[in-house]
Amino acid sequence: MTHLEAGAQVDAAHPATVTSPVTGLTSAEVAERVARGQVNDVPVRSSRSMAEIVRANVFTRFNAIIGVLWVIMLAVAPIQDSLFGFVILANTGIGIVQEWRAKKTLDSLALIGEVRPTVRRDGTAAQVGTSGIVLDDLIEIGPGDKVVVDGVCVEADGLEIDESLLTGEADPVVKQPGDQVMSGSFVVAGGGSFQATRVGREAYAAQLAEEASRFTLVHSELRSGISTILKYVTWMMVPTAIGLIISQLVVKDNELKGSIARTVGGIVPMVPEGLVLLTSIAFAVGVIRLGRKQCLVQELPAIEGLARVDTVCLDKTGTLTEGGMDVTGLRVLGDGDGTYVRKVLGALGASDPRPNASLRAIIDAYPDAEDWQLLDTLPFSSARKYSGATFAEGGGGAGEAGESVTWLLGAPDVLLDPDDPALDETDRMNEQGLRVLLLARARPGVDVDDPAAAKGVRPAALVVLEQRLRPDAADTLRYFSEQDVRAKVISGDNAVSVGAVASKLGLSGTTVDARRLPADRDAMAEALDRGTVFGRVTPQQKRNMVGALQSHGRTVAMTGDGVNDVLALKDADIGVAMGSGSEATRAVAQIVLLNNSFATLPSVVAEGRRVIGNITRVATLFLVKTVYSVLLAVLVVLVVCSQVEYPFLPRHLTLLSTLTIGVPAFFLALAPNKERARPHFVRRVMRYAIPGGVLAALATFTTYLLARSHYSGEGALAAETSAATLTLFLISIWVLAIIARPYTWWRVGLVAAMGAGFVLVLVVPWLQHFFALRLVGMTMPWVATGVAVFAGAVLELLWRWVDRRFPA
Q1: pLDDT tens track for 640-693
Q2: Is residue 685 part of a domain?
Q3: Residue 64: exposed, middle, or buried by beta-carbon count in 10 A (0-12, 13-18, 19+)?
């Protein structure tokens, strides 16, 4: 029997107050609970708070190091030797502004896609925001709805709830009035309502995590790689800095303030201070760009993750096809009566308060329902592949009870025996890409919710539905093919029908009935490699298929919009949900396409590739500087017996860093980049940074030693520093020129502009004085240039050899 009438039989042991299932709370009761603070006040956040953004950008390990050194320099040296501190302030400010802009974009998009539960108050059902729920509210739920607070079931009509995100149990749990309902679970079949017993931070999901949608976090190779690099840099910095301090302050009998200035000048460039900043900016700008395309990125590294994906699993309905369907034909089987069949279909449509897309199409086609008494219903389930209802079909007039008849509507190949002749006609229509449902009469006396109801049915008619293909699906599939990303169509529909739809979209490959897939993970992975289209896939199978692909080293993205996709979306490396999909899919996905356009995915892939490719370039620039700074300090310490000062003041390296790293890196980090994402970020960066940095340090120190033997007398140290600075700048600009390839007009202009900036410093007298840079004579400037050119030529050969010897 239906459980709608049993709504008042709530187990009063759970809630303190039993809310009327008819009216729900009154407005006065809601106001009273709000005044007492009994509201669902868990913040639904799509991004960090402003305080967290400021804290994350300001209070960093390297900002602390730079800050201490900056204070020291402000006390002992001219302001131009403290410029590096102002650069850090500017960088931090830029990082805060960019992430704040990204936060605003995320928050506005999250508001559009926010879950809005249906609450019954004053006898009327209305949607409210999640934070608008109060204790004892009566919340209506149906297929695809996420349970947002804890409660007790009040009404249940075939209600099945999946609690796998909380308990790990894959099988849906049938709920009856009085049963507990936990936040973080979601409805897979049926409908009903529950009374909220725990809201806000007392709810089960809130105690497990901030939100039920955050059970998994996307792995970011960029962020973890940069963290690894920074850890190694710290290990190198500390002993090198200590050695440099000792050599400059203790061993060298030099003026104290000058020694401190040159010591700080050696330590500051070891810090790759802008690398983390530019990575954050690149992600933030990506969020803003995708936000303009109505793409909500719920976890920032998901942009990077989708760019690394090599397999995309696509759900057909709602992804390749639009949500709606149209009934295009009705084939009455045997000696059935067409008029009677249409009445049955109309009655089935009217019996389901929350029809799926197929049933909505039937309701539109057959709106006139016969006034039969509804005795029991069975909502559609992806696991069962059919729905049903039992009617007391009136014999004499409206409302007159008569024969009890159970009707089922679902997949023909599930309800019929394999040798039934009706399946031949079904197969012919499936081959045309049509969707076919069977209307069948169950055996007399069997309950509609009995698993045996599907056995021995009497077929009455085939309902033919046509799905609307998304106009942009073919182009998107073509894009993935061109990018060597394999597409796998995974659907609960008939395999032949799904294969025909895929074929219309230009996706070729083997079509497989998932019921014949092996259960073993390795064998399943091999079958998935061979096939392209998979039909009759159960929700648990979708999850298993994602796991099987991942076990063979695949990086998997899963798209979907229905509750049957939730488990697979959660387990995939990247989950992509449609904005019009169920609340549950939007909750577990990392990316939500609010415009429901599958064609947005290439933009996400392109944005991820831009971030990965550009940060790899930028990281190489920063780490070349770190390597040559550490090595220069080591060389100074090693030749301490020769009384060698550190060659640079902070102002020199601030100038070089700005012209060869800071300004160019900002443009390169945000530039278009279509390179395919490749793994092993740390290895790919360090195989260039180490040889480049070592060569730059050796060439610069060689010029410095030659200048020390060339110059003498007052002003010799300034002349030696200027010659060494010239060599280091020319090598650094050469590194920038290599990193900027392949050349475009703006990249050539960028390198040329940085070179012109350095020339400007050398020729303008007040800039010469400000930066303490003045080339003396003709011999050493040409020697410095010659050393740099030789080092640049060696660098070209060395990096080409590295490419061949250590391929990424």
Answers
A1: 555 677 788 888 888 998 899 888 988 888 887 777 777 778 888 888 888 999
A2: no
A3: exposed
Peptide bond between residue 742 and the one before it cis (omega within 30 degrees of 0): yes
As beta bridge partners, residue 194 has: 139, 153
Half-sphere exposure of 212 (CA within 13 A, CB side): 27
Angle at which helices 273-291 and 601-638 pack, to 10 degrees?
170
β-pair partners for 510: 531
Average pLDDT over all residues of the chain: 81
* Cα dist from 374 to 405, 447, 583, whole Å: 10, 13, 29
Judge whether 497 lies within some domain: no
- Which 3 state secondary structure label does DSSP give 300? coil
Q: How confident is the model at residue 808 (pLDDT cuts 50, 70, 90)?
A: low
Would 345 be classed as within a structural domain? yes
Angle at 285 between CA 280 and CA 287, to 5 degrees: 95
Mean pLDDT is lowest, of 13-22, 491-500, 765-774, for 13-22
In the block, which residue shows the tokens 């399946």? 423
Query: CA nearest 40: which of 109, 116, 121?
Result: 116
CB 593 within 8 A of CB 576: yes
Residue 149 lies in a domain: no
Label the pairing between strands 321-332 and 458-469. Answer: antiparallel
Pick from 276-290, 480-494, 770-784: least confident: 276-290
pLDDT at 747: 92
Cα–Cα distance for residue pair 663/733, rounded to 1 Å: 12
Q: φ, ψ for residue 330 (rounded to 5)?
A: -135, 115
Q: Is 315 a catalytic residue?
A: yes
pTM score above 0.85: no
Domain limits for position 348: 322-469
Angle at 150 between CA 146 and CA 153, to 5 degrees: 85
DSSP 641: G
List the catalytic residue out of 136, 315, 449, 493: 315
What is the domain-level CATH number for residue 338? 3.40.1110.10
| Structural domains counted in the chain | 1
pLDDT digits (tens, 9 = 90+) for 9-41: 333 345 667 777 778 888 888 999 888 888 887
**Cβ proximity of 152 and 197 under 8 Å:** yes
Question: Helix, strand or coil for residue 343?
Answer: helix
For residues 72 and 746, give the distance between their C-alpha atoms in angstroms, rounded to a whole number: 39
> Residues 145-186: pLDDT tens digits?
888 888 999 988 878 888 766 665 656 788 889 889 988 788
Q: Compute the distance between CA of residue 320 and CA of residue 529 in angstroms, rounded to an integer.
A: 21
